[in-house]
TrEMBL record:
Pfam family, any one: DUF1996
Domain DUF1996 stretches: 40-301
Protein's organism: Decorospora gaudefroyi
Superkingdom field: Eukaryota
Protein name, UniProt field: DUF1996 domain-containing protein
Length: 360
């Protein structure tokens, strides 16, 4: 599920936004599923249920409300490959809508063979997380209490967001030889859901802003305190020598990106698709376009561990960055939190959770 070694080499050596391979740092690691639940401590704190279902990864401090504090001190375990990362990451789920109008949650392809096969096993669902820096003194790591949101769950039209979010249709398992960088080639990637069956699954990427106002850990809309670089919201464009920040948000922060591969293999029979031939997948927000893809983030790295890794100027990719501590997938899989809202999550259902009575 992770980008291949070939792709990493291409990104580092061929992409000017990385500043070549001098002092380039990329953390890439899997985070197992912490819980699937209809709560959202960022946008709807204290509300259970929240408007739509989420898939959550990271530390076990995730709850209906999360105080603006050092989350790493509240968590006891994490689902992530780096054991010092107690952050929480969450996105909308994807569902399949059958021709008879019922819904079924699409599972995530497990992450496996992380850190260049330095450990084995696979995660329980979840997704891959990336943090990218141009090297020493290039970015300022997030501060305790920091949180942000990218994307708009209510959007149903193209926002011309370029590389902020995208989907890719895999024609075969393990990408079928597809090693192009995420969200860079619009012949491969789209803002909307793929319109054809994807035998190898559907990959979605969510790239967060890379510029910060340097003052606020959050903002009322969870977006205004951060910004994309002035040359556009391109994935990875805010690091290294490229992606200048606007004057209102002068502080460069790590490029955070989520990568999820939805296992659509059980839903590729066109006889089950809508009779009009349209694609059958829908986000848990009720969005059948995919334009409303979004991601939430609450920072929770322990101490200075993230800054230390981002400052690693050796051209670092993987487990050795900054001397970070790692854990086996089996350990991460054990870190779960109980569901707070008790409702159907995995069976066939007549309506999406929270979308009852809404036109679909």
């Amino acid at each position: 599920m992770l980008l291949s070694t070939l792709l990493f080499a291409a990104l580092v050596q061929g992409a000017p936004q990385f500043g070549g391979n001098q002092g380039f740092t990329m953390l890439r690691f899997g985070c197992a599923q912490t819980v699937i639940d209809r709560i959202d401590p960022l946008v709807n704190p204290g509300q259970a249920p929240s408007p739509h279902m989420h898939q959550i990864a990271g530390g076990d401090a995730f709850n209906i409300t999360m105080p603006v504090t050092d989350i790493a001190k509240l968590a006891k375990c994490t689902t992530c490959g780096y054991s010092e990362d107690f952050s929480n990451y969450w996105t909308a789920n994807v569902y399949f809508k059958a021709r008879n109008g019922t819904y079924k949650r699409v599972p995530q392809v497990p992450n496996r063979d992380l850190f260049n096969d330095q450990y084995t096993g696979k995660t329980t669902g979840g997704f891959v997380v990336y943090y990218v820096s141009g090297g020493r003194n290039q970015v300022t790591a997030f501060k305790p209490g920091f949180r942000m949101l990218t994307g708009d769950p209510t959007n149903r039209k193209s926002a011309n967001r370029k590389s902020q979010t995208c989907f890719r249709c895999y024609n075969a398992p393990n990408w079928g030889g597809d090693n192009a960088a995420p969200c860079q080639d619009r012949t491969l990637d789209t803002e909307h859901f793929p319109t054809k069956p994807c035998p190898g699954g559907i990959r979605s990427n969510i790239a967060y802003p890379t510029c910060w106002d340097g003052k606020n850990l959050d903002s009322p809309d969870h977006k205004s305190h951060v910004a994309y670089p002035v040359n556009g919201p391109h994935a990875f464009s805010g690091v290294g020598t490229g992606g200048a920040c606007p004057s209102t948000h002068p502080v460069k922060i790590p490029q955070l990106m989520l990568e999820i591969v939805w296992d659509t293999s059980a839903f590729n029979n066109r006889a089950d698709w809508p009779t009009d031939g349209s694609q059958p997948f829908v986000l848990s927000t009720g969005d059948n376009t995919g334009y409303g893809q979004h991601g939430d983030y609450v920072f929770g790295w322990e101490g200075d561990s993230l800054q230390r890794a981002m400052d690693d100027a050796r051209g670092c990719m993987g487990a050795s960055c900054g001397g970070l501590k790692t854990q086996q997938p089996a350990a991460g899989n054990k870190c779960v939190v109980p569901g707070r809202v008790h409702e159907e999550r995995d069976g066939w259902m007549s309506e999406l959770p929270g979308m009852e009575g809404m036109p679909m």
